[in-house]
Design a protein that fits this description.
By secondary structure, the chain is mainly alpha-helical. It is 49% helix and 1% strand. The chain has a two-stranded antiparallel ribbon with strand order 1-2. Helix 6 packs antiparallel against helix 7 and helix 12 packs parallel to helix 14. The longest helix has 24 residues. The two termini are 18 Å apart.
């Protein structure tokens, strides 16, 4: 299934059209302000502090922020927001000092094999953040090439995980749970696919990329719906990853899980039952809906299609009218909704809601 005629770089670089009725119905400035404020909070939060005056990248706050925040041009902003450039500078520092920086979670403090998990995870997130930046600028920078070199050196070359990377596991769904290495591998494929200068066609990565493709495709039909959503997104960026028929079948399966109100539920996308018995509130949530609506559009499903129209309308209706965010609840623990940790899934939900709504206006 081919992506409809909207260049990826347009979404990332912020070259947006005149507002439509739907785009005028949600608070773009409020969403941008919320995302900026949360990126600043993460940078200043002591828990995120790492060596060399840097912070760790996170799947819930800073990486979704890096992907979504370039919509600034639609808001009339002439340059990147400060938190965005600060995040990119942090990543650049850690890439440049790769052999000197400590793992996010060293074995000495967190036990084996947290150092290797940390390095594998960080190598992917670093490459994604910098590749995303370079996609806007139209040229692959030397530090981004270095980030990819770090990434490929840590790719597994034998065993069950061949083609993937070590990935952080803390029994925290959906990003640090059993099997989440697949999520990480999909992000790696996206990083490669969006990289400018035809990086994905480079002969020097031909073998590693073939191994990554093979890993992502192995028994993919038996994987969780969440994994298949990530595969669909990755296939929209990395040419030839899925056939048109494979993509269609994944899309059909995802649409079958849509709720009557137009949204999707994260709880329906995987088996994340906890031993402590905690279960999040049922019903549609903004993270699942934003991610899926974005991935479906990237795969070629038109926003004028009935299911997508309902999903986009759900997103418009469920933005917080005063704070600008899209609320979402943790799969792992009931947090006070307005606490620092309580906003983490909301951060990702808001970023993907912005991506989905922005992409809907070709």
């Amino acid at each position: 299934m081919r992506t409809r005629g909207v260049p990826h770089s347009r979404i990332l670089a912020g070259r947006f059209p005149e507002p439509t009725a739907r785009s005028a119905a949600w608070d773009q400035k409020g969403a941008a302000t919320y995302l900026d404020d949360r990126a600043i909070w993460w940078k200043n939060w002591s828990v995120s502090d790492r060596d060399h005056d840097t912070s760790c990248a996170s799947c819930h706050t800073t990486v979704p922020y890096a992907l979504a925040r370039p919509a600034r041009a639609a808001l009339g902003e002439p340059s990147p927001a400060f938190p965005e450039t600060e995040l990119q500078d942090d990543v650049s520092t850690r890439v440049a000092l790769w052999n000197e920086t400590n793992p996010y979670y060293p074995d000495q403090r967190f036990g084996l094999p947290k150092s290797s998990e940390s390095r594998g995870t960080e190598s992917i997130l670093n490459a994604l953040v910098l590749s995303n930046r370079d996609a806007q600028e139209g040229h692959l920078n030397a530090e981004t090439k270095k980030a990819f070199e770090n990434l490929w050196k840590l790719q597994f070359t034998r065993g069950d995980g061949t083609g993937a990377w070590a990935w952080l596991y803390f029994d925290l769904a959906p990003w640090e749970s059993e099997g989440a290495a697949y999520f990480g591998a999909a992000l790696a494929a996206i990083a490669v696919g969006i990289a400018p200068d035809q990086y994905a066609s480079s002969t020097e990565i031909e073998g590693q990329l073939a191994s990554l493709r093979e890993y992502l495709l192995e028994n993919y039909a038996d994987r969780s719906p969440f994994d298949r959503v990530m595969l669909l997104w990755a296939s929209s960026e990395l040419s030839g990853l899925l056939t048109e028929e494979q993509s269609r079948l994944i899309v059909d399966g995802i649409l079958h899980l849509q709720n009557n109100d137009g949204g999707w539920s994260l709880t329906s996308l995987g088996s994340w039952d906890r031993e402590d018995g905690y279960r999040p509130a049922p019903g549609s949530d903004a993270y699942a809906t934003g991610l899926i609506t974005f991935a479906l559009q990237k795969s070629g499903v038109s926003p004028s299609q009935k299911n997508l129209g309902k999903a986009l309308d759900w997103l418009v209706k469920n933005q917080n009218p005063t704070k600008g965010y899209w609320p979402a609840s943790s799969l792992n623990k009931e947090h006070e909704p307005t606490s620092e940790r309580g906003f983490m899934l909301t951060d990702a939900a808001t970023a993907f809601a912005v991506l989905a709504l922005t992409y809907a206006d070709p």
